[in-house]
């Protein structure tokens, strides 16, 4: 990965944590701490120059930063609010830096792809401030040109960074990202609990993130979108029914895989191409499930798998209609004799998967689908 040597990242960790009642930077977050996760975010994106602004309980935080090998900046005015930390960080920047990320430490779940998208926009789209946006809403971390550094250091107005930037009339670039975490902060104990819960699902994009990938990033056509939505509805219905019978299927994984299985539908070998896209986004397990959605050979002695659910759901949805498995295999493509063996194998595998699921459910899948009013409701709204 090319190192963006002219870009710095400022992590603001000087605040009082008054609403949290605990020191936010050192709170556990998965296997690490909040501040370490923020540092790792930028490191993983190739940013070498990472600086953490400290203030409240600086003596507790600095040893951790030294172990992380990052530069720290003391803000002695931290009680004046977050903008004083922005000023302290900007004051420390060298003239060789062209722009800097600004990330409050209490927004620790940003995805690496968000930083990479902002860096790409910085290189390709002229501007002064590059804002990540999710479904039209701006979030963190903005990437800010250092052209404003001198004015920022002497500004004494009200309203913080947003008010300061508004006075500068910058050229702004909104960068759409498939990352709902740009909008999620961690100000209170309740927010912290929510962040811990989010972390358990972090390896898979949420329903909203899938929506952005489908409609704003990859931009699949309306036919593919309608099909994917219906496949997801069927897959979630099957998985929920199976879990009610003591299966342990990951609903988030199944929903995301079903929604995103055809994101490369217009390419040859589209299943593997879709998996490649997802792996590049950091979703390795999701990519693996999607890579198998065309054909899965069930293993009788193993539990029903997410890939079986997604594969079956895809095969009983024709366009955006629920059909019999056999009808799905009547596509003219299969009339070519040299593909007959592959057709027979796939059909046999699908029927075996269907049989496994029906045995667990104790009823034909058709009965389950016909009695589900939820299938008239769209997953993506």
TrEMBL record:
InterPro entries: HD/PDEase_dom (IPR003607), HD_domain (IPR006674), HDIG_dom (IPR006675), MobA-like_NTP_Trfase (IPR025877), Mop-rel (IPR054703), Nucleotide-diphossugar_trans (IPR029044). Signal peptide: none annotated. SMART domains: HDc (SM00471). CDD domains: GT_2_like_f (cd04182), HDc (cd00077). Residues 224-319 form the HD domain. It comes from the Bacteria. GO terms for molecular function: nucleotidyltransferase activity. PROSITE patterns: HD. This is Putative domain HDIG-containing protein. It comes from Desulfomonile tiedjei (strain ATCC 49306 / DSM 6799 / DCB-1).
